[in-house]
Design brief:
Pfam families: Trp_Tyr_perm. It comes from Neisseria animalis. Its main location: membrane. It is built from 15 helices and no strands. With 400 residues, the chain is mostly helical. It has a single domain, classed as Up-down Bundle (Amino acid/polyamine transporter I), CATH 1.20.1740.10. Helix 12 crosses helix 13. The radius of gyration is 20 Å and the shape is globular. It starts with 11 loop residues before the first helix and ends in an 8-residue tail after the last helix.
Amino acid sequence: MSDVLKTERITFAEGVAMIIGTNIGAGILSVSYAARKAGYLPLLFWLVVVGIITTVTMLYVAEATLRTRQHEQLSGLAQRYVGGAGSWLMFASVAVNALGALIAYMSGSGDLMHSLFGIDKKLGSIIFFIPAALVLGLGLKALGRSEKLITGLMVTMLLVLVGATLLFPTTDFRHLLDGDWMYMIPVFNLVVFIYCAQYIVPEMARGLAHAPTQLPKAIVTGMACTFALIALVPLSVISLNGLDNISQVATISWGTALGSWAFFMANGFALFAMLTSYWGIGGSFLTNIADRFNLPVDNSIKVRCLAVALVALPPFALAYSGMVGFVDALYFAGAFSGVVLSIVPYLIVRGARANGNREPEWTCPKWMGRPYIYGLIFLLYSLSAVYAVLAKFDLLPAGW
């Protein structure tokens, strides 16, 4: 198979920003509310556990890309090392998760623009759509630079909010010890869906092809930074308000306690978080489409514009279509695509070790290949999918 994707150089910092930006979507603002019964410590436990297992699956993919001369996405790597069925399964996983996330960002951006500026929600989504689609059209280099710029702004805004919270007179760190470990299961499920940057690894590998040993370092650094940021938000919100006074979205809690400046800054952060996550997930979806259907998106402006339209326009249309049933279908498909993401990366790296066409500059540590590690990853993701379905049908104990 020939390369349809060109090498476009990105820096180490841009690679790290791609991971942070993709992971830090709107979910970071709802994680405090999700932990209102379990408390902060169970949340922190799952952030560590899920962060580690997600990083392991990302490093599986990283090693596979380093064993492959061609620049291929997850579906292309699955085609090469797992076979046709694995490839279509992986492509479906990428497509469903991307579609679900991009619909949420289109809808959520309209809500946020309405809250901030009082404009019509659909117009707000259109304003958000323009830079979102434009960067996808400009390619990997533009995506890396944009992720670095906006992620830097996001981190600064978040640190200002966290700093103001920690210095606020009513902040009480004893609230962090409140809660009940019995309610830790639903928290796990949300955390699984927050760490979603597996898709971006082949794009990073393409951008860091000039310095392949930086790829695993960028993954670990990006995931460590993601963990720190996701842990800081609920630490601040719970310390500030206690578990009994947490709003569904953290921006409201911050705005109520710290003042209107915090409301605007936190909502601005949420908007940037949606934008960076849109770029990461949308960019990965676009290159998977190119890889799966052999489209020369880096050699033809016409083909690239068509691919961008294919990625960007359906989520915008579906966000305002009122097709609730379709969104529900995406929810269930997304739950199972998480299981695919736990199974296929290991099969890909195993296939790459047997049939790769180049000598890798880096390989996963031996402990990552142990059967109990892979078994644990598969078990946790499978239970996550089962939980998601049971929760949707209200088959779980009251109070979860």
